Amino acid sequence: MAFENILCAVDAGVATVTVNRPDKLNALNAATIAELDACFADLAADGDVRVVVLTGAGPKAFVAGADIGELADMTAAEAEALAGRGQALMNRIENLGKPVIAAVNGFALGGGCELAMACTFRYAGASARLGLPETGLGLIPGYGGTQRLPRLVGRGRAMEMVLLGNMIEAVDAMAIGLVNKIYPDEELMDATLDVAKTLAGKSTLTLKMALQAVGGGLETDQAAGLRLEASLFGICGGSEDAREGCTAFLEKRKPGFRDR
Ligand code: COA
């Protein structure tokens, strides 16, 4: 499928998706949301894609937010529908069944920060700035930010960021767990792709179960989470890949996983 606002390339099991509106700091207009949604649906179904890296085009921004030009004159119903479409994209990314790593290469604001938070984890360039500035626009985050930020960084820090709408530097984002690691800007993409390649060498079945166990468990109480973990451990434990992985360890060789 041809896209106008994003790029998508697949190499050795790793798909790189790039939001490509650098002149608008990769702001998410309606067309870009729709293209990302279609692209991630394709990536979910594509058996050749094992891991996804998500980034923004140009040197300045990952994604500088929802396209403010589309927010200035909405009815309440239109705004709610917009939030629904944005949330559907973020949910699709979060529940892709494959790891999605955000390479935050500059501003990740509003919808851009929400997009990064929907990813499995986040690496940032040293010059990245993250935040949810919506209150400055008379809005609140609508693409999942009020829900995913407290789950990542805790209630107090999330309240501070959402209410004040301030931007934080990459180093502070790492200190609160909003990004996992920081790299020099020029090394961010290669470092992220290295991690993606490592993940692409693992069993897709195992990764899918791990994603479900951590993600699903966080949305429920611990007892239910433990039941979920045991059942997913059961699926892994009975798999060919578990037999191969454990046998390979005992035979002191590298495993050859077959994703089943
Ligand atoms: N929506 C629409 N356009 C945006 C945008 C957004 N979220 N963020 C940036 N742009 C556009 C600017 O309007 C400008 O377009 P122009 O050249 O046609 O005037 C272009 O991208 C470059 O941005 P500019 O503001 O000139 O860059 P800067 O380096 O001075 O500032 C930011 C960078 C990120 C601080 C600033 O662009 C900004 O505050 N953006 C909005 C962030 C935001 O509130 N996001 C949440 C939206 S809900």
Ligand inventory: coenzyme A
Beta content:
15-25%
Give the helix tally.
Answer: 10
Structural class: alpha/beta
Order of helix and strand elements from N to C terminus: EEHEEHEEHEEHHEHEHHHH
Round the mean pLDDT to the nearest integer and report it. Answer: 97
**Residue share in helix:** 40-55%
Shape: globular
What is the CA-based Rg, rounded? Answer: 19 Å
Poorly predicted segments: none
Distance between the termini: 29 Å
User: Largest beta sheet, briefly?
Assistant: 6 strands, mixed
Number of DSSP strands?
Answer: 10
Side-by-side strand order of the widest sheet: 1-2-3-5-7-10
What does this structure look like?
With 260 residues, this protein is of the alpha/beta class. 47% of the residues lie in helices and 17% in strands. A hairpin with a 2-residue loop joins strand 1 and strand 2. The longest helix has 19 residues. The mean pLDDT is 97. It binds coenzyme A (COA). Coenzyme A binds next to strand 6.
Offer a quick outline of the entry.
The protein has 260 residues and is of the alpha/beta class. The chain contains 10 helices and 10 strands.
Helix and strand arrangement:
Elements: E1 6-11, E2 14-19, H1 30-45, E3 51-56, E4 61-63, H2 76-94, E5 100-104, E6 107-109, H3 111-118, E7 121-125, E8 129-131, H4 145-153, H5 155-164, E9 167-169, H6 170-175, E10 181-183, H7 188-200, H8 204-218, H9 222-237, H10 240-250
Parallel strand pairs: 2-3, 3-5, 4-6, 5-7, 6-8, 7-10
Antiparallel strand pairs: 1-2, 8-9
The structure holds coenzyme A (COA).
The site of coenzyme A (COA) has 16 residues, from β6.
